[in-house]
Amino acid sequence: MRRGDRPRTTRSPAEGSLVGSMDAIILQILNGLDKGGAYALIALGLTLIFGTLGVVNFAHGALFMLGAFCAVAFSRLLTISERVRDESVTFFEAYKEIPYLTLWYGDTGQAIVDWAVPLSILLAIPVMLLIGFAMERGLIRFFYKRSHAEQILVTFGLAIVLQEIVKYFFGANPIPMTAPPALAGSADIGALFGMSNISYPMWRIVYFLFSLAVIALVFAFLQLTTFGMVVRAGMADRETVGLLGINIGRKFTIVFGIAAVVAGLAGVMYTPILAPNYHLGMDFLVLSFVVVVVGGMGSLGGAVIAGFLLGILQSLASMTEIKAIVPGIDQIIIYLVAVVVLLVRPRGLMGRRGVMEA
Amino acid sequence: MAIDTSAWSRRRLLKTGAALGAGLATPHFFVRNAWSQDQAFCNNPTGGNVVLGFNVPQSGPYADEGADELRAFQLAVQHLNGEGDGGLVKTLQPSSLKGNGILGKKVTFVTGDTQTKSDAARASAKRMIEADKAIMISGGSSSGVAVAVQSLCQDMGVMFMAGLTHSNDTTGKDKRRYGFRHFFNAYMSGQALGPVLGEEYGKDRKAYHLTADYTWGWTQEESIKNATEALGWETVQAVRTPLGAGDFSQYLTPVLNSGADVLILNHYGGDMVNSLRQAVTQFDMKNKQVNGKQFEIVVPLFSELMAQGAGEAVKGILGTANWDWKLDNEPSKILAKSFGEAYGSPPSQAAQTCYVQTLLYANAAEKAGTFYPPELIKALEDFEFDGMGNGPTLYRGSDHQCFKDVLVVRGKENPTNQFDLMEIVKIVPRDQVTYDASIFGGDLGPYEVKGCAA
């Protein structure tokens, strides 16, 4: 295609290509926001764990993956089915499966099955909390005093074990999950901006709003509760808080559980966007670490801002106009940003002095 | 006396020497071929068994196809050994198959996981050849993998009966003497699909390609581009996406605002399931109007397995296929029944191609009367056969590509049962998709190679 020969969409010819690229930019920003939501939630948990426990948790991506599989498991529970002979297949004995919920409760049962993903949050919260406690008490606490390299090795090993367990039970293939019918499809959100022709998948908007809500809850918990205050104090100076007679260790176990729940919920709600497989965690882990580093080790606000920022940059870099100038930029943009940030601001965007600098 | 003896002895010595020399040389001269057939080729089976190596993706974006291919291989091995209902062993025409293994040896097999990665696939093929003594490698589901393994097999002197691979390169620029492909290719898809796209969507269309960024994607993009541009379509943009990207939203987002009114997804397997589901169920593209026309999505290479994975999203989507279990011919029905009874679902096109390849290998060995690869290759080159479900089929000698009818298929709007997900729109005759082997270049290489026995 020649330059300046930009194809037109349904809008009237009077509108210029500037409007066209505005649409495209808004769409990519939206796309970056839902991706960024996932990055921010994972990075938030990572930072929380790092800031409180001083542990670099390479198993955090696996927690995201486990969350996604909570949704899969819950939807499998809801769709426990009766095997019925499929009479419509005549050339061999075929069977089809009809969920008991549908058999027993008809449309109400089917509606519950359809809303499996959001409903599985109810299962994911206690399960992820338990997994978080078990991980911290069972393994990670023995590595508080060890070097970061050892922590990375042991948590990375744990991540591999967890993903192999999931592979054993759920197989290697991605498992497609569907959003509730009411939230599937796309919504015309152009009206909000006074523009036409901008429609975006509804579930992705839901995901973005959900991630904002979870982030707000975590911040509110840390800022507004006594527990949060103690945790923040512990993050700033663990020793002094301990000297005040507060059992900071127990508090930090709970923090680990909360971080696991945050990552898990991010995973649950992500399943309709991307069919989960056992490897999902690893795909997000590396990105989330870059997010944490760009945001600044130990800075919760930095993690959130960097999460959204990198999501948006990644989406914008996929625009054909930008790829025409720098081919392949969509594949490396995140790492490029990380390099630049580390060169210009070695502590990250909002990093604190003294964190990981000893 | 001494002189006499010496003269006699010398003559006798010369005679004896010549006779001995001739005696030693002659049998060797006559049996050299036989000797090399018996000994000096890679993994010549010596016991009562012959080992086949099935190298399929058991993880990665093509794992579904791989699992189905493995089922087909197991069924083919059973049928070759005279177990089960015999399947297509009975229908191949002309056939040298006896139903007692291959050349009287019981068929056994080993499997490997290609992980849909060329290096992993080569490593597992090498292991099967060196450690498990596999005499033939089959499998696929990725052309990148097929091309890499095919070249390894040529070097090692082991036959490669490609499974699902659709890139033009497999039997084009990267063709090898030891490799044979039963599956059709991207060029044939373009030739078959182009006219149907013209009839269904008109001549004035603007296409946007999303393409898996490796050999298969590139050749399919090129083939479909050529076919649609010949109709008068304009190609607005062709964007490469990494294999196994998972979330394609950042590549789908610009499509509707690009001015294109057709999206062509040069994706396969899990990638296609993800990109198509995201395009249809999340971005709602099928319900959009662009340029005053209904927005359309085309998936040039289609399969029932992907249709199952993508669910509702496949309805009304046009594409091509190598084979479909619903084809109205006796061999297809026999295979669908046999496979269905064994595994509870009809075979995919990937499964059919792997099943047929295994039988064709066995048939070539029976026909040649040996496992010696150069003789098998000659038995397969220009082999014309029928009875495998695709109608009359030719294994062309000049590039080892199969020529047979190509199916244009569409995701069915109202399935009559859980497996009835695609309808056959058109059966494009073989002569309409046949091309000159020289257009893709490449060189098959020699029959005789040092191989792993050297």
General description of the model:
Chain B: Pfam families: Peripla_BP_6. Chain B: Belongs to the leucine-binding protein family. Chain B: InterPro entries: BCAA_transport, Leu-bd, Peripla_BP_I, TAT_signal. Chain B: This is Substrate-binding protein. Chain B: It comes from Jiella avicenniae. With 358 residues, chain A is mainly alpha-helical. Chain A has one domain. A two-stranded antiparallel ribbon of chain A has the order 1-2. In chain A, strands 3-4 form a two-stranded antiparallel ribbon. Chain A has 14 helices and four strands. Chain A starts with 16 loop residues before the first helix and ends in a 14-residue tail after the last helix. The N terminus of chain A is likely disordered. A seven-stranded mixed sheet of chain B has the order 7-6-8-11-12-16-17, with helices on both faces. Chain B has a five-stranded parallel sheet with strand order 2-1-3-4-5, sandwiched between helices. A three-stranded antiparallel sheet of chain B has the order 13-14-15. Chain B has 454 residues and is α/β, with parallel strands linked by helices. Chain B has two domains: 214 residues, Response regulator (Rossmann fold, 3-Layer(aba) Sandwich), CATH 3.40.50.2300; 135 residues, 3-Layer(aba) Sandwich (Rossmann fold). In chain B, α2 packs parallel to α11 and α3 packs parallel to α4. About 3% of the residues of chain B have low confidence. At the A-B interface, α1 and β4 of A face α2, β7, α7, α8 and β9 of B.
